[in-house]
Amino acid sequence: MNEIVESGGEAIAIQLDVADLHSIETARLAVPAGISHAWNASTIDVLVNNAGVGLFAPLGTITAEDFDATFAVNVRGPLFVMQAFLPHLSEGANIVNVSSSLSRHVSPATSVYAASKKALEALTRSLALELGPRGIRVNSIGPGPTATDFNGGAMRAALSGQTALRRVGSPEEIADAISALVSHEFRSATGERIEVSGGVLL
Fold first, then answer.
1. CATH number at residue 74
2. Is the full-model pTM beyond 0.90?
3. Looking at 44, 113, 169, 177, which residue is catalytic?
4. Span 145-181, pLDDT tens digits
5. Is there a contact between 75 and 93 (Cβ–Cβ < 8 Å)?
6. How would you list the strands of the sheet with 193-196, edge to edge?
7. Are 27 and 84 in contact (CB under 8 A)?
8. Is 80 noted as a catalytic residue in this protein?
9. pLDDT confidence of 118, banded at 50, 70, 90?
10. DSSP 122-160
11. Is the residue at 201 inside a domain?
């Protein structure tokens, strides 16, 4: 938030734990109040589900707790965030769900994480059809190895050498892709999965 303000933009911050349904409900009330106070606005034009957790483990060590925690954040959370904010979305709004290149290619010990992201993509397609009559577009972005602290940067170094561009991506590149996807130029794209991975494991 500070970076947005320092660069000349405007922002408000609302705390939200997507794994906690009570937290989602609290945010559902706080966000419209916040944007109304800050900008005299009553609707949301873009909703990005970017929260994620990766608990990587081989089959023999996967626990029920790991499975439940992964799906709570990566699948259940985005679903109920979209449900909560649906009444506040403008006609023609955009929803972007952040998936992963791991929903396409295979890596060891990523089965639960990959399954959760594939489920998120299925939600994306289904809701694109359901919300289309309101002009709401629903798409997903599939980042590859990216220079973030997600899961301590697990697998980032190993996969960077397996990209066509021979480097990891940057958070700015993912943000740019999301900005492009929600722009007027992509106005006919919905139910799509756009991979932004530098060509990992082609």
1. 3.40.50.720
2. yes
3. 113
4. 888 766 555 556 667 788 999 888 999 999 999 999 9
5. no
6. 44-49, 89-98, 137-143, 193-196
7. yes
8. no
9. very high
10. HHHHHHHHHHGGGT-EEEEEEE-SBSS-GGGGTTHHHHH
11. no
